[in-house]
Amino acid sequence: MSRISKTIAGLQAQNKKALIPYLVAGDPQKGLTVELMHALVRAGAHIIELGIPFSDPSSDGTVIQLGAERALRQGTTLSDVLAMVSEFRRTDQHTPVVLMGYLNPIEIMGYETFAAAAAAVVVAAPGALAPAAAPGVPGAGGAVRGAVARTGGWLERAPGTPAA
């Protein structure tokens, strides 16, 4: 059973809801992200959704857009985000961490490279990643599905989520 499933099942058994805060990695400062992740857990977070900064977060609201801009101004990359999760995992092996972001940074890193790096730092693994490629992007959905399939099952598409 994945960290996410265990967390949700435990909360359901207690008739409780999950607190899942969102944080843009690298905002307000790169060096604060891991500290903020631990503070969220101490404050009662059950799962952390960590945003991958992207240069054109047009589908996100103003708050997330501004956070991504601040993180990018400091040079926060996808590799940095994975390193932050790795550092978080040194002292917290239980709290699920789910990455939220656009396909572009993953595509630039390479699907297999990303899958291997995410597995190494235990990002939502075992857990779920909902790869959603924009409709009309030729081949993106198949490439994502292929990369997910090659992870040996540790990376899975969340039920009910789109994958173009």
Explain what this protein looks like in three dimensions.
The chain is mostly helical. Residues 126-138 and 156-164 have low confidence and may be disordered. The chain contains seven helices and three strands; from the N terminus they run αβαβααβααα. The protein has a three-stranded parallel β-sheet.
Short descriptors:
three-stranded parallel β-sheet, 7 helices, 164 residues, 3 strands, mainly alpha, disordered C terminus
Calculate the terminal CA-CA distance, rounded to whole Å.
Answer: 27 Å
Helix-strand string: HEHEHHEHHH
- Give the strand content: 5-15%
Kindly provide the radius of gyration, computed on alpha-carbon positions and rounded to a whole number of angstroms.
15 Å
Count the E strands.
3
Oligomerization category of the chains in this entry: single chain
**Mean of pLDDT:** 81
Query: Level of helix content?
Result: 40-55%
